[in-house]
Design a protein that fits this description.
about 350 residues; alpha+beta; Immunoglobulin-like; 2 domains; 8 helices; 20 strands; about 25% helix; binds zinc ion
Length: about 350
């Protein structure tokens, strides 16, 4: 066999072996929201570099297969997976951010994003709460992370708002918080929101302290089949820098277990961009969903389930204005998004700041 034939044979074998699995990547595209693209992210996961069970390659390929656009591998105190993650992820079209997890001794965990992979975390998960102790003072380590160009988000947050997070928020280095953590999803500090276990108190924190909301897997084992926690990121450009800019500007929404949590201005624009409501005939409304989220919409007393990329019709005998309550879209732990749509006007989506 000459070389060309060998190469062709090898290529077709590789395609046969790898194409079927990758072809199953679930559809997860969103229409643009104003001038932003919406990406699906997971910013907290582990590999055998710390206490995870998958290699970096396995974790990255799995992330791609379940439908993420952007990830950060965040091993405890070790940013070292980044190089391999980037090498494996980029040919698949994945954006990979450098990251690691660390925190205060016996207390808060933080995920660091955007620090260079050469950064050497000190005393992971053993930061001291006072200066002059055996391990690094949390303020010194948070400052070092900020100076290296990184940001922090608080992971699986317990109920108590304590000084390290408060200080980090005031310094502008802690800029995000997990509302959902797939690993500890019904553990300490969680409670129900719309029937789903998550961290409702951290949703309040996010609104009060202007933090970006995250829904991350914190995957240690193989991810289970089915929908994953997703942090939706509204980016100006599909690059690592574009994702970091969006996080710094708090343009994130948490989507997990069938619910969507975010600031009203973001989730309203997300819903109005994704769902088109039209009059159809004299007594019907037609609703078209152009995104992967299943929405539950209440119009008068009708509750409508709007499947991903699907179209649904319902009776409508009202006038030009349709008031919709989005039962699985939350603008705070106690309030649903409500929108008023004028059938005679195209849905207006503003350019978000
Ligand atoms: Zn943790
Ligand atoms: Zn973790």
């Amino acid at each position: 066999m000459n070389l060309l034939r060998r190469v062709l044979l090898l290529t077709s074998i590789i395609l046969c072996v790898f194409t079927p699995a990758f072809a199953q990547v679930p559809r997860h595209d969103f229409p643009p929201v104003g001038c932003w693209q919406v990406l699906c992210g997971d910013f907290h996961m582990h590999t055998i570099n710390s206490d995870g069970k998958l290699t970096t390659r396995e974790r990255v390929e799995e992330s791609y297969k379940v439908g993420y656009d952007v990830i950060a591998v965040t091993d405890h105190g070790k940013p070292r997976a980044y190089k391999v993650a980037k090498y494996v992820g980029e040919p698949l079209g994945l954006i990979v951010l450098p990251g690691f997890e660390s925190g205060v001794l016996g207390k808060e965990h933080y995920v660091a994003l955007g620090v260079p992979p050469t950064f050497k975390p000190r005393d992971p998960h053993r930061w001291a709460e006072k200066p002059g102790q055996e391990t690094v003072y949390y303020q010194d380590e948070m400052r070092a992370i900020a100076e290296a160009g990184g940001i922090l988000l608080q992971a699986h947050p317990p109920n108590e708002w304590r000084e390290p997070t408060d200080w980090g928020v005031k310094q502008g280095v802690v800029i995000g918080v997990e509302i959902q953590n797939g690993y500890g999803k019904d553990g300490d500090g969680t409670g129900p929101l719309g029937g789903v276990h998550c961290y409702p108190h951290s949703f309040d924190w996010a609104l009060k302290h202007n933090l970006a909301l995250f829904a991350n897997t914190d995957a240690h084992y193989s991810r289970r089949e089915g929908t994953q926690p997703v942090t939706l990121v509204f980016v100006a450009e599909r690059t690592a820098a574009g994702v970091m800019d969006a996080i710094r500007a708090r343009r994130t929404v948490a989507w997990f277990n069938g619910i969507v949590c975010g600031r009203e201005e973001l989730v309203s624009q997300l819903v109005l961009s994704a769902v088109e409501v039209r009059k159809s005939g004299a007594t019907q409304l037609s609703m078209e969903n152009r995104c992967p989220i299943t929405f539950k919409a209440q119009i008068d007393n009708n509750v409508i389930s709007l499947p991903p990329y699907g179209r649904v019709s319902c009776d409508w005998r009202g006038g030009d204005e349709v008031k919709v309550r989005w039962l699985n879209v939350w603008t705070s732990p106690t309030s649903n998004l409500e929108t008023t749509i004028k059938l005679s006007q195209p849905q207006l989506v503003q350019n978000l700041k």
